[in-house]
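User: Hey, my collaborator sent me this sequence without any context and asked if I could get a structure. I don't really work with proteins. Can you help?
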Amino acid sequence: MACIGVCLNANAIDKPPQKRPQNLLVICDVLRAANPNGALPRVGLTCRPDTRGWERLVSVLTEVVFNAHLMKFHQLVLLAFVAETEGARGVELFACCLCTRLESPHTGVEPDDRRTCVRVAQISTSTCSVETLAGAADTAGSVDDIGPAARFNNPRGLAHSPDGTKVLVPDLAAFVVRQIDVGTRQVTTLAGTAGASGTADGIGAAARFHMISSVACSPDGTKALVADLGNHALRQIDLSTHHVTTVAGLPNRGQGTVDGIGTAAAFSGLRGVAYSPDGTSALVADTSNHAIRHVDLSTSEVTTLAGIAGTSGSADGIGSAARFYVPWRVAISPDGTKALVVEYDNKLVRQIDLATRQVTTIAGTAGASGNVDGIGAAARFRGPVAVAYAPDGTKALVADHNKIRQIDLGTHEVATLAGT
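Assistant: No problem. I've predicted the 3D structure and written it out in structure-token form, which is a compact way to encode the shape of the chain:
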């Protein structure tokens, strides 16, 4: 299932708010039909809007959904949604995006479309087969076990170890990082405690995360970077000791746009992270800031590589002249010279020359949604959410809604490999 219904006050759709309120009340209810014999779950949350009230609203409402354990209801409806901050039209569009994003697939080794199991796609030049690696469809949980006996709760943004023997799994709604042994299909929890969110650094179960959106494994297989979405921080796990540390961003401070060193830097809803091939740096898709950030892993210095934090758009250009709109994931080419970025809201695949910082669009047309194969701007994406390079760097895979798409990086031809 890909689309979920949204109910809003029809009288408010085309009317902007008459004044900016001092507080923002977000109320999320679940469709009564999903729980006909019990009380209707209801959660209220108040926050103070600012000039970035729109992005904050995304973060707040997502947090409400997860904290209320509503993920088990796949037909989520926003029955009451009072948000006088950016206009009702924007609220309507956000509500639709939130509902569809809850079930978007991911590339390569991927969560299934109901976010409760992990599936592996075996792709060759002529075939693409998909099988379940661990977990069970429609059965959420946080159980460590073997293959179908294991349970996940919204896995996403996965990463292979360099030797291909392990898969790291950010279990977003369980607030933990899991590991799958590909040979035995044994699932174990590396860091965090299922159901316990927080900001603490520590070893193994003593560490805390809040809505992990993706991980990346270092080229030597010794460490992993974690995009801690809810904490707006970049974390690191030592894979031998399971020790979790904060590389950049300050979880207790919340979101921001500042370049700086370590905890002096700030992110807003970071969703994608990728190591450079030599392991000395990383790129971060700073989603709500509409920017791509660079992190020097020796100094923890964060700089903005492309885009301007807080300014959305679709313009190609060099560095700060380029614009992004909800960059979802980022990948670095095997030779370390280029990066690919997928943009959920722009429906684009972009390329960054890492030496010159030149951003170019290689597939899709900004704002044009569809499921069309083609070359460059003639191709259409419905909601690209993940991207990965082929080992030789000549092709890329893109997770696009319910499909796996392939891009020839020489010709920019887009073809569908799997999904409908």
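In plain terms: Confidence is low (pLDDT under 50) at residues 1-114, 122-126. You can pass these tokens on to your collaborator as they are.
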